[in-house]
Amino acid sequence: MEMIKPGRLYANFQRLTYPLSGLFSSRYNPFYHLGAIAVFLLVIDVISGVYLFFFYSIDPQTSHASVEAISRSFLGSIMRGIHRYSSDALILTTLAHMLHVIITDRFRMFRWVAWVTGVATLLIFLAIGVSGYILVWDTKAQLTGLLTAKFFSFLPVFGDALMSAFLGGDIKYLGGLFRILLFAHIALTILIVFTLWVHVMRNARPRLIPPRFLYITITLLLIALSVLFPAKSDPPAYINKLPFEMSVDWFYLFGYPLLKYIPMSVSWLIFTGFFAFLFLFPWLLKGRRNPPAHIDFEKCTGCEQCYIDCPYEAITMKNLDHEKKAILNENKCAGCGICVGSCSVQAIDIPTFPVDEVMERIRREKPSFVVFRCPFSALPSEREGLLTFTLPCAGALNTFYAEEVLSAGVKGIIVVSCEYEDCYFREGNKWLEERYERKRRPILKKKVEGGRILILEAPLVKSIDREVEEFINSLKEGKEVRVITSGKVNYALASLVLALPAFLFYPLTTHRISFYPTDKSVLVLSFKYRSSPVIESFTQEGKGLKHMQAKTAIVKERSPVKVEVYQEGRLIYSKVFNPRGIRKDTSVFVYEELFLQPGMYNLTVRLMETKGKKDVKEIKLNAKMKASDSLLLSYNEEAGGFVVLR
């Protein structure tokens, strides 16, 4: 029966990752620990964020000053830098992890839950990052908030109300929004704990922390970056001034420059389409799955070793007829056969590794040497006296099978597995080595000459002919099985390789981009206006006779307003704005940006109600507009007139 095999993309990716094992060894190869590195970076991000929270002021009038005060202290500057760069590294590592999962085909079939929760976690990471940037309240925060508000203004439930909070609105409304953003920033961080739990819940022993060398090196690199390139703010924001440009963190704000060129409807189509595609990706490509294992209840002794070793918790222990037995959940079974290698009484078998047929062929062909390999590991060249079998996973090779093969007259066995931390089924090669090194049940019996067995960690792209030749020509003596691992750690070069992407963080987070044409000026209309009632009803309140009770008006609908802008009597802008609410009974929010050539302007702005009392408000402006300059027109409801802010 056919089993899953690596595709061409997988093999090409191994050509990239395998050379790194020569520097890091397979134990420390960062490509094999991307998920654990992401979790570690998240922990660093949370710890540094908690530190910054103690010194941060939630009031937008003082928030920028509080952040700058943090940066002026040595420890505060380092913690802020660690917070910034660990956040960027988190996004980079998460994207690399997703790419690795796609290339190695570990996102479909029984792994779909991990993929879907991973995409959801990426969305949460981005939301946390954007909210964090807004809370600094510099020009980057203001422009990020304004662009985000424009993005959400496409949805009727938000409209233009959000934009006025970042430009032209009352600072107390922005303060309320800041409290909501801070709550969301913290709440989403807590939510990640749940999504990560769901993400790894199918895994029996998820790797949540990378090896010591990796996490120490990453921590030192973050500190070095924070000292050499301290995290800096943009200039402070002013609620009455529109910033034309900002520094862009490409890890979090990569989609914002697109808002300059495409309509919001297209932006929403791209955003929803892209993430819908990601969520549905496991079902868009047809995949194959190994057939599940089979457990013979009559042979099962209930020793629990298969239950312990299964990487995906597909086996549970239950009492059947007052005897403990292993029960297989076929929906969770990956068909790896690791449980086959775990069983001391050979009570488990799998169609992709028919042991009886394998032994029959060995007795019939009488090879001198036998190779057992997994589909994702190296394939030895054909030679006389060498017989090769492919298993679904090297971890399926039970020690009893090796003993039986050697007793059939075979001189030696070579087991070829994936690199140690890159097993397609997570733990197959790890359990294999521990069993044959007599550290894990079922152990290789002491009577078996371990020297006649070679375990070789080698990816598909590696040639193992030299190792096979040396083993065939060597004296196979001794009790210990020889294990050839992949690569040795070169700590200096490995640290340098890790530093290369790290030092890209600073230029990728300080690149300045103009979001508005810097050769023009802009007139911004940003205000809230409570128009006259169009439909209202009255209720009577109070005690006593009906004619003595007070009448209270209840507004059921308000008038839309029409805003017009004239330049020396010539109409240059006209638009109707509707009240908010399902019944159109709340205030009208107006937000518009009118770009003008620099120069002297005589402007008239007129606001007219289109129904009801049809009140008219008007203001005349004589203003000299400069390039990259903004003129903000707001409305004071208490005074009943327009207010010019500049």
Task: Walk me through what this model shows.
The chain is an alpha/beta fold. The protein contains 18 helices and 21 strands. The strands form seven sheets. It has a five-stranded parallel sheet, with helices on both faces. The chain has a four-stranded mixed sheet with strand order 17-12-20-21. It has a four-stranded antiparallel sheet with strand order 16-15-18-19, with no helix packed on it. Helix 4 packs across helix 9 and helix 5 runs antiparallel to helix 8. It starts with 7 loop residues before the first helix and ends with a strand. The relative contact order is 0.11. The mean pLDDT is 92.
The end-to-end distance, rounded to whole angstroms, is 76 Å
- Indicate the percent of residues in helices: 40-55%
Q: Please tally the helical runs, counting DSSP H or I stretches of 4 or more residues.
A: 18
State the secondary-structure class: alpha/beta
**What coarse outline follows from CA principal-axis ratios?**
elongated
Reported for the largest beta sheet, the result is: 5 strands, parallel
Strand order of the largest sheet: 7-6-8-9-10
Total beta-strand segments: 21
Write the layout of secondary structure elements.
Blueprint: H1 8-28, H2 34-55, H3 63-72, H4 74-103, H5 112-135, H6 139-153, H7 161-166, H8 171-200, H9 212-228, E1 245-248, H10 264-284, E2 294-295, H11 305-309, E3 315-320, E4 323-328, H12 338-342, E5 348-349, H13 355-365, E6 369-373, E7 386-390, H14 399-407, E8 412-417, H15 428-436, E9 453-457, H16 465-473, E10 482-484, H17 491-502, H18 505-510, E11 511-514, E12 521-529, E13 533-541, E14 550-558, E15 561-567, E16 570-577, E17 588-596, E18 599-609, E19 616-625, E20 630-636, E21 641-645
